[in-house]
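Question: Send over one sample?
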Amino acid sequence: AGIAEFADVHAVWSHRFRSIARWFIAFERDRDELIERRHAEISGRHTDALLGDFRLRGRADRIDLRKDGKVDILDFKTGSPPSARQVLSGFAPQLALEAAMVRKGSFGDAFAGRSVDTLAWLALGRVDRGEPFRSAVDRDWTADRLSDEALARLTALILAYTDPTKPYLSRARPQFETRYESPYDHLARVREWSLVEAPEDEP
């Protein structure tokens, strides 16, 4: 209704919405016999003695309790989701950390200690351009092992920064440096020392 007055925008999105709705209904119908209960938009918080005053908070799009006692975690994306390789390398830790929180009971005692069967994105923008389902788990790994690895890395990072001599890096992920600015760029005088000021300046 909010875009009804814009005929061209409404025409595009009404078509996309119908496509997404048809795919989503079929996706849920195919999983129905496996799922005990679906939980949408749940907030959670993880605390740990090792983390001190640090709190890991998140809001899960979907956590489904399966009839076999395991858990499926689904994250909805309208854009392009990261790859499983990016999750494994630590460049996209969100979903793996969410799985760790689920297993720790951060989203409710009903999920505590359960194994995660499916950890995936649903890239709704790909409904008309391929398969929207994309697993966040790389080959030869499990979601449980991936979640343990992500939480261990986060804990190690937080503990490292409890050392007052530890520097905060302004550009810790060089491949993304032209996409996201760091809050420490000004302290590192990145613009002053960069040979390339902006993506459009690149050859």
